[in-house]
Amino acid sequence: RYVAEYRGEWVAVLTFNSAALHLKHRDRFLNWSHKQVEQRRHLIAQNSRFLVLPARTRWPNLASRVLKLVCQRLPEDWKAQFGHPVLLAETFVDPQRFRGTCYRAAGWQALGQTKGFERCGQDFYTDTRHPKELWVRPLGGKALEQLRATALPEELQVPRPTPPPPPP
To answer: Which of 52, 69, 100, 155 has the fewest Cβ atoms nearer than 10 Å?
Structure first.
């Protein structure tokens, strides 16, 4: 979670969590196969909440500035917390309520609309009939190149747990 402070006043709150399991537009954008999604999804962070708090003063471009600064910090903060960096950030924007202007200004790219399903439990999805727009932002100059590579560098691979010993 990030809390942005400007001139002694809290101005925004952002939270990031693990990426969505299945996103057709994202996976096509990255040229990922089903197997690559399973192996590389840990390299994506999802911006699940972004709230600009009411303030006494108005600052131009505050939302896009906060997004840009948080995206610069996110790979190292994620690595410190989880042991590996993230290379891409994703988020969803409700087109019935917002246009995604601050994301566009902060360098994010709209990839298309979801089908309107939300995850409900471990293996189930509910049709909300309310699609969202998917936005993504590479986190670094070589992020897309690394994500699209046929093989990940060793430092980006998550070590697999040691399998249990065979039964006697």
So the answer is: 155
